[in-house]
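User: Hey, my collaborator sent me this sequence without any context and asked if I could get a structure. I don't really work with proteins. Can you help?
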Amino acid sequence: MNIIAAVDNNWAIGNKNELLVRIPNDHKHFREETTGKVVVLGRKTLETFPQGLPLKNRTNIILSSNKDYNVKDAIIVHSVDELLEELKKYNDEDIYIIGGESIYRQLIPYCNVAHITKIDHEYAADAYFPNLDEDGEWEITADSDEQTYFDIAYSFLKYERKNIDI
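Assistant: No problem. I've predicted the 3D structure and written it out in structure-token form, which is a compact way to encode the shape of the chain:
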């Protein structure tokens, strides 16, 4: 499975249920990676989308503990076990975990590839992604050239879980 996020220098991903910054090229990268694929997200992340609606041209799977939660054009699951069972219907490489913080933390153990937009800035934040640079199980396998949006420098990184022989 894949996991995809935009993080700042402190691995922050959001503040007050909002993205830290909106970079058009990052949104384009996200669309290119996830269109036609399966996206897994939490209820709070869904509520930040335009009109709180699922993403178009993707299979949206929402993980919510609320048994009464219902969303048109989305599959709702209520536990990680139920989610993993649902995900068996799809190709592993077509699944993208898209947030938020608690969803990332619960599902990163099941992911082998992380698509990270690394933003060279430190924002005020209250939500974070696990720091893959400090996790010996992950290594950077691809790095774009540094790009800029106004005065914000960023790059697209691909991390892959190392094959650790036991």
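In plain terms: The mean pLDDT is 96. You can pass these tokens on to your collaborator as they are.
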